[in-house]
Structure to design on (99 residues):
């Protein structure tokens, strides 16, 4: 399985990023989906944290289908304040395929 990782840029990719867990966990009876409008607004809308944080979202594709997602947040204000170089990874979901 060839996996291609691509940064989320288009509206379609943003919707795929937000909606991916619904497809991934469709058969899990304990899965509680997030509110798409809220998730979309937090990640890709106007958010006060974006004034001092860098955010980037990525999708992984195999055979043209989304098979994973991940996002990275760098809080530049906190890194400067505490003299750190830290990054936060989140929204890390993927299909269970070791290839």
């Amino acid at each position: 399985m060839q996996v291609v990782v691509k940064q989320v840029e288009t509206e379609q990719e943003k919707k795929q990023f937000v909606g991916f867990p619904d497809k991934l966990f469709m058969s899990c009876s304990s899965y509680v989906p997030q509110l798409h409008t809220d998730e979309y607004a937090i990640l890709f809308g106007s958010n006060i944290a974006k004034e001092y944080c860098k955010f980037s979202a990525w999708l992984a594709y195999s055979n043209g289908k989304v098979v994973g997602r991940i996002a990275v947040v760098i809080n530049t204000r906190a890194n400067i304040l505490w003299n750190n170089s830290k990054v936060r990874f989140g929204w890390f979901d993927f299909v269970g395929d070791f290839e």
Observations:
- Strands lie at 4-7, 53-62, 65-75, 88-94.
